[in-house]
Amino acid sequence: MADVALYAQADRLFVRKRVLSFAIPAAVLAYLVYIFFAFDLPGLASRARWDNGATLLADTWSYKVHVTRDNRSDTVALSVEGERRGTYPEGLVPEWVALRGDTTVIDLGGGQIVTFLPDDRLRFELPGWGVLNAGIVDGKVKSNLTGEVPEWMSLSSTRLAISTDEGRLSLTRSKTEVFNYFPGWELFFFTFDSPYYGHSLGQILFGEQIVPEQSNIAGAWHDFWQNPMWHHGDVAWAMFETVLMAFLGTFGAALVALPLAFVAARNFTPLRTARFGMRRIFDFLRGVDGLIWTILLSRAFGPGPLTGSLAILLTDTGSFGKMFSEALENVDHKQIEGVASTGARISHRYRFGVIPQVTPVLLSQVLYFLESNTRSATIIGAITGGGIGLLLTQAMITQKDWEEVTYYIILVVLMVMAMDSFSGWLRRKLIRGE
Fold first, then answer.
1. CA count, 13 A, side-chain hemisphere, 5
2. At 230, phi and psi to the nearest 5?
3. Under 8 Å between Cβ of 80 and 186
4. Contacts by 267-276, CB closer than 8 A, 24 or more apart
5. What is the pLDDT of residue 227?
6. CB 135 within 8 A of CB 122
7. From CA 45, how far away is CA 67, in angstroms rounded?
């Protein structure tokens, strides 16, 4: 009878495991199907603007030159990214643009040629499609388009927009504008008003002196650092503010949490009420997200790196308090007793009997949080108005200079990699003694 019962129990266990092996994947599959319909993924795919995504992607690794005609004054201006500080000076015109009095011819490449004609008119030669003629008549956009408009065109009485693989065209009542894309980040080093624009690195380092009474290296560095379009000096300061927020917040939280962790540790504070109260304080501090602390503190201290540092400090104090107290509860009391046997005071027992045991764990946790907070400081900086996060947010809001967004993201990634290498080196020095 006992053997029969054991066989029956084993059969039930096998059946239960077999059911679970099918039930768990089935539950996961059912959840994914629910997400598919609940989030309306088919609708999102149908409403997605892939052309906008392609344009945004192109903006991240390239720059565009704006050729703009003011339809009220008939003046034509050329500029990089449409910025006033990137306007081509008089006499400097790209070879693909021909200024011929009242007529401007723009060769976009691939046989696509846009011609600005007098009286607010234009002609767009599109190989394989035909010739588009358009203009402003009685304050409205008129063209030779008939029937259904292709997907890469948009036409209304107020605006004509065309996007091709070679460039884009926009016609409104106030202006006619052509965008021509080129790979790279133009004016990243020097703007048009810099005497070093157009000179190679070899010419600057080893060539003749470009500006009298100023060395090429000093002058080039000044114009690069003070670049009015890319703001390299401001970006470097913003990076420093971001690292400073992460450093002050992380190590400030560690200094605050360490003494409080002794109160929350069971083996150092026998009073249950004190332990319970301190643990609830830690729960409260880490339970409120750093972004919420940022918004609350910005009302008190205003925007700036101080607000971001305090937000990180409060959140990490709760996290460090919990982890430090758990580390303290696992210390070896024999070492404490050994120090006490020498007649040492309580403070010395903690200093020489407790701290050396928990230091490797504490340092490892603090350095890991420093790496993480370097990324978090970017987001916090976007809210408090400090650091690289603010510049990144501003570049995104403009919806124009996406190459600057790429630039800032690359700097953030490099900053995180540098902090990871630094913390790893510091961990090896302090913990392993290498």
1. 2
2. -100, -15
3. yes
4. 267/328, 267/329, 267/331, 267/333, 268/328
5. 93
6. yes
7. 34
Report which of 181, 240, 194 is spatially closest to residue 391, judged by C-alpha positions.
Answer: 240
Band of pLDDT at residue 255, cut at 50, 70 and 90: very high
The answer to whether residue 276 sits within a structural domain is yes
Dihedral sign (CA 291, 292, 298, 301): negative
The 3-state DSSP class for residue 187 equals coil
Kindly report the backbone phi and psi dihedral angles of residue 240, in degrees, each rounded to the nearest multiple of 5, phi listed first: -60, -40
For residues 157 and 253, membership in a common domain is answered with: no
Domain containing 19 equals 2-44
Using an 8 Å Cβ cutoff, are 359 and 273 in contact? Answer: no
User: Looking at this protein, which amino acid is placed at residue 320?
Assistant: F
Q: What is the DSSP-derived secondary structure letter of residue 430?
A: I
For 19-75, what is each residue's pLDDT tens digit? 777 888 888 888 888 888 888 778 777 777 777 777 777 778 889 999 999 998 889
Strands 140-143 and 153-155, by their bridges, are unpaired
Q: 152: burial class by Cβ within 10 Å (0-12, 13-18, 19+)?
A: middle
Q: What one-character DSSP code corresponds to residue 121?
A: E
Tell which residue, 184, 305, 297, has the closest CA to residue 239: 305
DSSP conformation letters of 13-38:
HHHHHHHHHHHHHHHHHHHHHHHHHH
Q: Let me know whether 71 and 15 are in one domain.
A: no
Q: Could you give the angle at the alpha carbon of 368 between the alpha carbons of 416 and 291, nearest 5°?
A: 75
Residue 195 lies in a domain: no
Question: Roughly what angle, to the nearest 10 degrees, separates helices 387-398 and 402-427?
Answer: 160
Cα 54 from chain centroid? 19
Query: For the whole model, what pTM was predicted?
Result: 0.81
* Beta-bridge partners for 134: 122, 143
Q: DSSP label at 230?
A: T
